[in-house]
């Protein structure tokens, strides 16, 4: 089982991102439809608004976590989705479709704003922790990176050894010398003068 599934910090940081869209979807659906009088319509509103809320939360959170200027990429996509859904709403006859799409857009917008705030807050807190704690805070991540690099280097050496054995067997069987792309590159480098 992956370690992150049993990590309490992982779930403590993830559950609000799942719970808040559900809460927004439930509250907005309660404003539009009664779960007692029309439970089918209420479930439809909750389902549509929760799915769009989750989309808004994930998009906002990733935008807030990003150090790059992702607003130039996210804003046109969100506005395109909103515009497409608005065209669908006004072109569609029937109040139910209009309510459903409008409710979903409101839920997505609320969660997009909250997600951007949540992601940027998380990023700022992480950067603050790295500055306050210094190198000790980064040590586990650096050790994990070094372990990964070591595992990759060992696997590369094993692959190279297997390749050399296979190459020698093929050269012996077919009677001509095989040269890989990497060997050609290395032989070209060895012929270049060193500075």
Q: What are the key terms here?
A:
single chain; 195 residues; 84% helix; mainly alpha
Characterise this structure.
The protein has six helices and no strands. The two termini are 52 Å apart. The protein is mainly α and 195 residues long. The longest helix is centred in the C-terminal third of the chain and has 40 residues, at 135-174. It is elongated and about 85 Å long. It is 84% helix and 0% strand. Helix 1 (8-32) crosses helix 2.
Gist of the model:
By secondary structure, the protein is mainly α.
Rg over CA atoms, rounded to whole Å, is 28 Å
**Percent strand:** under 5%
Mean of residue pLDDT? 83
Oligomer: single chain
Shape: elongated
Number of helices: 6
Q: Which structural class should the secondary elements be placed in?
A: mainly alpha
Given as residue ranges, the uncertain stretches (5+ residues, pLDDT < 50) are: none
